[in-house]
Write a structure and sequence with these properties.
Layout: H1 3-12, H2 15-49, E1 61-68, E2 74-79, H3 84-90, E3 114-117, E4 122-126, E5 133-136, E6 139-140, H4 146-150, H5 157-170, H6 187-193, E7 197-198
Parallel strand pairs: 1-3, 6-7
Antiparallel strand pairs: 1-2, 4-5
């Protein structure tokens, strides 16, 4: 393209022809800009409309110690939100003849928890010295009665009532050490009764 010739031709145009040519050129530039931005915007919209690749969520795993009268007592990794029934199944199920009626199978498990199967508190003969019933076996601190707490060494009727009141006010205990939050339960008392307690 010869620019010198175009320049000469442009100088030969009248003033109104020059204006018309400049106006047409500007309109052409505006139209080209509009087309460019419009098609580019559609391409960006199409890209953003594509489904984003999402990484699958990694399920949180908790560790649960299943003990007692199960076929395979051990520590088992379970998915967060698992229930007591899931932990017992992971341990191969309860041994033959074990009554699961006293266990809340629907309770959601907490990481690091220990689940005892088959240890039910049994009411024995009344003690002639204290006049209160004695309980043997493991006591679930989230379901125990005042009499069951009262049967533990170092826990009398007053502290047993405090434990139950604390549980009713604050919800279930998440760890055995939570008993230390109850007025009257010290670390020595807790260590003495810990073998008899479960969650």
């Amino acid at each position: 393209m010869n620019f010198a010739k175009l320049k000469e031709d442009f100088q030969d145009y009248t003033h109104s022809q020059k204006r018309a040519l400049i106006a047409i050129s500007l309109l052409a530039i505006l139209f080209a800009t509009f087309l460019f931005t419009n098609t580019r915007g559609r391409a960006v919209a199409q890209e953003s409309a594509k489904p984003a690749l999402t990484m699958p969520a990694v399920a949180k795993t908790i560790l649960i110690h299943v003990a007692g009268k199960v076929k395979r007592p051990d520590v088992y990794p379970l998915l967060a939100g698992s229930r007591v029934s899931d932990a017992i199944k992971a341990a191969g199920g309860a041994q033959k003849g074990v009554d699961l009626g006293d266990i809340n199978l629907a309770r959601v498990l907490v990481d690091g928890e220990q689940v005892y199967v088959g240890y039910v508190a049994k009411v024995g003969a009344s003690s002639s010295k204290s006049g209160k019933a004695t309980f043997t076996g493991i006591i679930n601190i989230n379901r125990a009665t005042k009499a069951e707490f009262d049967s533990l060494a170092g826990i009398g009727p007053v502290i047993a009532t405090r434990i139950i009141n604390y549980r009713n006010t604050n919800g279930p205990f998440l760890a055995l050490d939570d008993l230390l939050k109850v007025s009257g339960v010290g670390s020595k008392t807790l260590e003495r009764i810990r073998p008899r307690l479960s969650l």
